[in-house]
Amino acid sequence: VALDHDAACELGRGFRQDAIYYVEGDRLLVSRCGQGTKRYALGSFRERVCARTAG
Known about the structure:
Layout: H1 5-14, E1 19-24, E2 27-32, E3 39-44
Antiparallel strand pairs: 1-2, 2-3
């Protein structure tokens, strides 16, 4: 689901989450669910995904 950061934080607060993970392009970030909070980069999203092939 594509949401901007503020909408994702609002959704997180609705489920009483303190923080969310957020992906922009290939960057994985984490931030608290407050308005205008700082996002902390965690590195490449693709490096953390393990793809399985059907077989």
